[in-house]
Amino acid sequence: MPSDQKIQPTHPRILLLVVLLGVFAFALLQSLINPVLPVLQRDLGTTQGSITWVMTAFLLSASVLTPVLGRLGDRYGKDRVLVASLTALAVGSVISALAPNIAVMVVGRAVQGAGGGVLPLTFGIIRDEMPRERVPGAIGITAALAAVGGGVGVVLSGPLTDLFGTRSLFWLPLLLAIAAALAVHLVVPPSPARSDTGISWLSVALMAAWLVALLLPLSQGPRWGWSSNLVIGMLAAAALLAVGWTLIERRSTSPLVDIRMMRVTAVWTTNLVSLLFGVVLFSVMAFLPTFVQTPPAAGYGFGVSVTQAGLLLLPMTALMFVAGLVSARLVRRLGPRVVLVAASALNVAAVAAIAFQHDRQWHVPVAMGLLGISLGLAFATMSNVIAAAVRPDQTGVANGVTANVRTIGGALGIAVVGGTVSTHTPPGGLPTEVGYTLGFAVLGIAGTVALLTSLLIPRHPGHTSHP
After folding, report:
1. Which has more pLDDT, 83 or 133?
2. Where are the transmembrane segments (predicted)?
């Protein structure tokens, strides 16, 4: 259908609802599979170390492709690239749903990672099409929905698996992605302005290389040996590649990530907090369902079903949504720094409770409730701190970077916690309680660093020129 035949929305809310459908489809995939990883492991006949790549491949792919698709949207039209991103998400869902083995499923999950482009593209479309005074609120809703969608996935995975089997967890996002792609094609108008600058594919290759060089040894360290030459060599290579990528980005006239913008105090502090919150969020959603499903005979766990595990995590999703709604009022009254400091403190308390107080089932929903309040306040507030700290034309790009950094943090967290748990897993047996305790304690360290970093965020992060 030609772009001039698109149905123009009668109200900005119609456009917002359409793009939010795509955001929800992608967010759902970030956690829908996590609670059933043990079931998938048995179905595919693979090991615990291999099954974690179902998550890592998705997050790694999203980390690399999110800024690339955002830049392609600037050049070829955000509406067109958003449709392409949602289409790739749908194709990856089909591959994963039909995968006969772990290798094919990992490929499908990597293709699904292209759905990460919906976040910067949605932020850009909101910036282009919404009235300026409504942009911060719309961006806050988008950021909150991206987090809430992840929690919904944890809750829905059990009932869907019980009713339709594990492969149904890929068919649902497929339907949502198709519906979102069609709605975007019909409703979202062509981008009003497009960049004529190209993309530095060398920069893309370097970014992909240093992320892979970092995540691969973190996830495979227990198998290869943390002191092995391979692990140390890849980590060193990751550091060198990251430095090279940064230098190229600084000199580029059309960088994937504007390094100058990232040097603004409100921007880099908020992005560091976002990365550390990503470490906590994705790791909890990945490993806590497995923890509570473990039979008590192992010395921990409650032996609950997948559905019951989702219900134990339900307070996180519900309170995350409520906290996201009230965050704007709290920011206006107390300021963004106070809200982020409070959210970070709740984050530390929640993770500490998970690590050291998990003997009774009721301990889990209480900790998840605290975590939900923390995440809801933090994600909505961070998006508006970024919007206030950068130029209006950078709102979409800057918030896209923040979302992408959170995804990278998730990949790092899953790799580190997965490696810690695997280190304390006897051959052919279940992980020990010590492995989970240490893994969750690592998340507490990440939360503490986020708390300290949030203290550095300016009290009034208004827009300032790049240094």
Report:
1. 83
2. 12-30, 50-69, 81-100, 138-157, 169-188, 200-218, 230-248, 268-288, 300-326, 338-356, 362-382, 403-422, 434-457
